[in-house]
Amino acid sequence: MKMRLNFCKVGIVAVALSVVSCSGFNKLRKSNNPELKYQKALEYFNQGKYNRTVLLLQDITGIYGGSTKGDTIAYYYGASLYKEGDFEGSGAVFDEFRRYYPRSPFLEDAEYMYAKGIYYTSPRPERDQSNTLRAIMAITEYLNRYPESTKKEALEDNLKELHQKLYDKALMSSRLYYDIGYYNSAVTALQNALELYPETNHRELISYLIVRSHYMYARNSVEEKQRERYLAMQDAYYNFVSEYPQSQYSKDVEKMQAEAKKYLARFEKPEDGQAAASDTVTLSARERRRLERAEQRRIREENKQLREEDKQLTEMDNEINRNASKKVKKPKADKETKRTENTETEHGN
Length: 349
Prior knowledge:
Blueprint: H1 2-30, H2 34-46, H3 50-64, H4 70-83, H5 87-100, H6 107-120, H7 130-145, H8 152-179, H9 183-196, H10 203-219, H11 223-243, H12 250-264, H13 285-324, H14 341-348
Helix pairs in contact: 2-3, 3-4, 4-5, 4-6, 5-6, 6-7, 7-8, 8-9, 8-13, 9-10, 10-11, 11-12
């Protein structure tokens, strides 16, 4: 019973202190003492009460904007927004900070949080990657400006992660045309992906899909167009095998090449003494229909196998999506942005 009463007393004291604290903060905000607000804002920042720091600094920004305390107020205002997870707000503050206070001692930290904040807004590969590109530019700019920074290694890891998002996005976007059966468009999109990111770790898969898209485009074309499209497939095939002679897709591309050769053999001229005198062979209408039906049966059978192979590629896409869906954690109170209260107050004064 005595222990229960003690817990009740502790709870009452905590509530009372909270009420007093809120009441004191409200009085501070209503006061006409900007210097006190400035000092308390820095205290709240060191205590991790970033929301209070933001509110107090908002009250006095107009008063100290052109003074020697201007950069201190702007820095801690942006840093508080950053710590609260408002990366768009902090980014806007630090972007202005870089222009207005190029000689401030806070400049390096401000540019770090500016770049890191954009990094945190980079979405998953499935979405628009504009912020990913902005983050790459901001981090690269920071590393070029501060090559000896203690944050260099971590930021380089961030850059690798951001570039991987671009590689994944390029694969997903170009692969979409293949998945929906727009094979000619798939060839163009896949080739563009390789030209844009030749260093991508999806290069082998994309190169294979180019061969296969050519192949599917040729197989599903009208007879008048098949010859030239199989020839285009062979060009892609030779490019693939020269770059990946021991590829995991070698068996499949060799099968496609064999079919292309078989089809194109119809158009080869017969050797001397091996065929009749005529260079062209005229088939009867009945024979052509028979050959067309046989070809259609063969295509249907091979389509079954191709659908199975498509399932394997889809599983690879799903694996990429799962790896890309890892959430980025919001930053904790970074050690590098914390400063002692005495140093901060001294600089402001």
